[in-house]
Design a protein that fits this description.
Chain lengths: 164, 258
């Protein structure tokens, strides 16, 4: 666990509040952050998409380590339905790279809109660098792997909201 | 004076178009630009006498001294493996082509492929390969080989790590002839890969069999003995925990691994 007094503590209430604001601002349904051994997952459960259903209050859930999330549960905003989400998967075994080189910005980040031809990452195997196209249009709502992480064939890399 | 005979390259190889530059930043970058514009006759060869920003893995740079061979081949899906799973084999296939051809020009020396993409003579780098693509529509196969350049002209930190044909033989060779040899061999290797014949019957120089290797991965560093290569190009390592096949991790061979 991280030291609560650490200036880098990702569970700082103000930071979580800011994350929640960012999620609302960009209409994100899910956020997954990891820093060292600690991880925080924020998920907005919005109104059911069934026509005519009353809007349910939004809730935020967090990973166990982030149980001290602020009273953001009162937040209410429309959220994307998980069932409509599309996953971008790795076509091969390899190493996931979010950027073309270590000094460059990531190809895409949460909140970005992508098209079928947009390169979202590189999977490297045996020193061969494979640019992965999104193959779908929509908004990146979650990056599911870390830069430099080994990935398996078919492993989900990104979650995309095609209606985002 | 041009170092390459372009018309001979088109006549004697499967290349249909050559984009030849006296100086270019990176032949791989140029080839990727051709891929995006979609107007090239493929296979396209991007060739340069000199690169100002030759690329290697990540932020690594490839030094291209005068007289070296630097080219990138742009191919479309008709020359690529049918399965994207086999896409990583392109680097290995290219390495095999380069090793086999350079061995012909370096009689008396042993040219090795340091898995998966370095061509070495006595642990010094003779050539390097950088393959980039999207596994569906196009691939850029970048090759750099130290031929008629001398490492005496290279940056000081590079000199003990690399070697050239000129340094080894004292003679300058026909760059066009070497390039044609590599392209012809590469054409065969690409067909083998596309026909899914795998690498089961590849010569043992693909990797130092039965020698110690050190694997750096997410779980830390482990050591083992190299036991060969799988048909999909993965290296098989016998570790204390059993046999492991490795595609993506960093591997160090030889004494450094002991």
């Amino acid at each position: 666990m991280s030291n609560p007094s650490s200036p880098q503590d990702i569970f700082d209430v103000r930071k979580i509040r800011r994350l929640v604001e960012l999620m609302k601002e960009h209409e994100l349904s899910e956020l997954d952050l990891q820093q060292g051994e600690v991880r925080i997952q924020l998920r907005r459960a919005g109104p059911a998409v069934t026509a005519g259903a009353p809007p349910a209050p939004g809730t935020y859930t967090a990973a166990p380590a982030a149980a001290a999330a602020p009273p953001a549960a009162a937040e209410s905003a429309p959220a994307a339905d998980d069932s409509r989400m599309v996953l971008i998967k790795s076509p091969m075994v390899g190493t996931f790279y979010a950027a073309p080189d270590p000094e460059a910005p990531a190809f895409v980040k949460v909140g970005d809109h992508v098209g079928p031809e947009t390169t979202v990452c590189i999977v490297e195997a045996m020193k061969v660098f494979n640019q992965i196209p999104a193959e779908v249009s929509g908004k990146i709502v979650a990056v599911l792997v870390e830069n430099g992480q080994s990935v398996e064939f078919g492993q989900s890399l990104f979650r995309v909201d095609p209606q985002g | 004076m041009p170092q390459f005979d372009v018309s001979r390259i088109v006549r004697e190889t499967f290349v249909r178009q050559v984009d030849y530059h006296p100086v270019v930043d990176s032949t791989n970058t140029k080839a990727a630009e051709w891929a995006k514009c979609g107007k090239a006759l493929l296979p396209l060869l991007v060739l340069a006498d000199r690169q100002t920003a030759g690329r290697g893995r990540g932020t690594n740079r490839w030094w291209t001294g005068e007289g070296s061979l630097a080219f990138s081949l742009l191919i479309d899906e008709s020359w690529m493996p049918r399965s994207s799973c086999q896409f990583p084999m392109l680097g290995l296939a290219t390495g095999i082509a380069v090793v086999e051809v350079m061995q012909r020009f370096l009689q008396g020396h042993c040219v090795d492929l340091l898995w998966p993409n370095d061509v070495v003579v006595a642990d010094r780098k003779l050539g390097g390969i950088l393959v980039e693509g999207d596994s569906r529509r196009f691939t850029v196969i970048g090759v750099g080989v130290n031929v008629n350049n001398s490492l005496r002209d290279a940056p000081a930190d590079l000199q003990p790590l690399a070697v050239s044909v000129l340094d080894l033989t004292g003679l300058k060779d026909d760059l066009t002839g070497i390039l044609i040899g590599i392209l012809r061999r590469l054409e065969i290797e690409l067909k083998v890969l596309r026909d899914d014949k795998g690498f089961k019957h590849r010569p043992p120089y693909c990797l130092p069999q039965n020698e110690p290797v050190q694997i750096s991965g997410e779980e830390g560093i482990s050591t083992g003995i190299c036991r060969g290569i799988r048909s999909d190009g993965a290296i098989v390592v016998e570790t204390a925990d059993g046999m492991r096949s490795v595609h993506a991790r960093s591997i160090q061979f030889g004494s450094a691994a002991q």
